[in-house]
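Notebook entry, structure prediction.
Reason for the run: the old model in the group folder had no record of what sequence produced it. Starting over properly, with the input documented here first.
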Amino acid sequence: MNESWEHHMLKLEMAGAIRGAGWFAELEVPAEDGSWRADVMASAPDGARRMAWEAQLSPITDEDISARTARYRDARIAVCWVSPHKRPPSWIDMVPAVRVRAPEARDVPWVVDDGLAGFDFAAGRWEFREEELPRFVRWVLLGQLVPSRSLPRYRRVYRHIDDQVWQFRRER
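New structure, fully documented this time:
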């Protein structure tokens, strides 16, 4: 798949999800001082809050993504990094981030398949949850989901794939 095409499609999907949540979405929004450029900028209907959504397809170091996240934080803009790669990027638990899966058919939404977890109290552990991208975006914009750090004993996150249980390590 052509990376620039995939990047464009993911940005459009994020913009559509933002608008579906009742927020305004604008593509390629630069900072006044040029210190950042958001792939998609979400603005609350009342203008009180903004959130950048970054479709990260090209390789980026842990240091660079942390620095870019800090620039958004300094500008009082929340950010969520979104990766469509099959393998989780090294930075997925360093910054607010998720991995998404492109649909295999038309008119089917993208799915968040890594980075969203719920705590299973009965099992005493975190488990990955898959969710359609539009619902995930709405939850984030409405403050119903927030990134959080895990205590060391809960940093293993489990995922059921094809009748097997896989274990991943996540700090966030």
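Summary: The chain is about 25% helix and 35% strand.
The old model has been moved to the deprecated folder.
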